[in-house]
Specification:
By secondary structure, the chain is mostly helical. The chain has a single domain, classed as dinb family like domain (Four Helix Bundle (Hemerythrin (Met), subunit A)). It has eight helices and two strands, in the order H-E-E-H-H-H-H-H-H-H. Strands 1-2 form a two-stranded antiparallel ribbon. 21% of the residues are buried.
Length: 195
């Protein structure tokens, strides 16, 4: 058996050629750096989810029925879209089934105004709060090895070839997704008349 066959995948091994030993100190530094990067990405995630929460708690419900720009989605649709998208992380990360699977058809597979009835802004705020707190609770318990493991939409075979298809990469992508839609929602605040 070769040495490389005995080493588990994703194992960090540093060999000091001068001393002919593996360095635990270097391993510890690499682990600390990995934890720091994950912490920074979680801070970005939390900042973005808090911005959405603050935005949708700022005005009366009627305000969120406006389109962000003429012919574009309404703010309330974007909130539902973000709830449904983040709710999908529960199953994607293998945490649980979606909490609100009924939102997928309303906010992910169809555009705004495809249906006559949608959940109210108050309902969507509660859904957002529940999904966000469930994810935050789970994220706070994840170790670096959890973050760097595959998500449920990638097979073990594909993950072996493409280890970047991990949960941390999904978190980065979804944090960007939230920022993108917050950028759209800012247009509504600019429409708000000054007093």
């Amino acid at each position: 058996m070769s040495i490389s066959a005995a080493i588990p995948p994703n194992c960090i091994i540093v060999h000091n050629a001068k001393q002919g030993i593996m360095s635990t100190q270097t391993e510890n530094i690499a682990i600390a750096q990995t934890k720091q990067i994950i912490s920074q990405l979680l801070t970005t995630w939390n900042t973005n989810t808090n911005r959405v929460t603050a935005f949708f708690n700022k005005y009366e419900d009627d305000f969120y029925l406006q389109e962000v720009a003429p012919g574009r989605s309404r703010a309330i649709y974007l909130l539902g879209h973000l709830v449904a998208s983040n709710d999908g992380l529960l199953s994607l990360f293998g945490i649980s089934e979606k909490l609100y699977p009924q939102l997928e058809e309303l906010f992910l597979t169809n555009p705004d105004k495809a249906f006559n009835e949608y959940p109210s802004p108050a309902e969507l705020r509660e859904y957002w709060k529940k999904v966000s707190s469930t994810l935050a609770d789970h994220f706070s318990k994840m170790e670096p090895s959890d973050w760097l493991s595959r998500h449920t939409k990638v097979s073990e075979e594909d993950f072996a070839k493409e280890p970047h298809r991990n949960k941390l990469n999904v978190l980065v992508s979804r944090a960007g997704h939230i920022s993108y839609h917050m950028g759209q929602l800012v247009f509504l605040e600019k429409k708000e008349p000054a007093f």
